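Lab channel / #folding
Pinned by the channel admin:
"Please post every new chain as: sequence first, then the structure tokens as a reply. Keep commentary short and put observations after the output so the thread stays searchable."

First post following the new format, from NK:
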Amino acid sequence: MEPTMIELKHYRHGELPEGFRQLLLDVHTDAYAAEMDDPFVRRFPWFVDHWSALDGFACVVGFDGEEPIGFAYGAPAKTGREWWREHVVPAPERDSTFSFSELMVRSRWRKTGAAERLHSALMANRPEALAVLLVDPAHPKVQALYESWGYRKVGDRQPFPDSPRYAVMLRKLR
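Reply from TO:
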């Protein structure tokens, strides 16, 4: 599907409207419909609550009319506790990091450029020097997409006992 006019709305910690959490959960349910039997996938509400409670939380949601098509969110990492540190020695001189947690596009709007628009809008004007994300290497097309946006794999990490082992990807923002 070719989206007509996608409107991007920005949201920040402390300024989240009523229904925001449910909006993200609804997009997730659609985006992961085929994987909802996976216990880790079903834990997504916990991640929404965790990330949206962080100082500096930033989210961009795309809308096609009134319908949400997807979102991207993350928050600044606490200095010295970044996911990538154990994989990059020595650390870059400028190492402030934005932890890019989620990018999700509903199935109907995939392959329309919506993911790149959401990512670009979230990363625009970030003050941090770096962005880090985790991607499941079982999805090589997704990893290749991030590589096309300037990320590079620096290591592997399994952040939770029930999660996949992810590729740690890092990108300079400045």
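NK: Residues 6-172 form a domain with the Aminopeptidase fold (CATH 3.40.630.30).
TO: also worth noting, The two ends are 34 Å apart (CA to CA).
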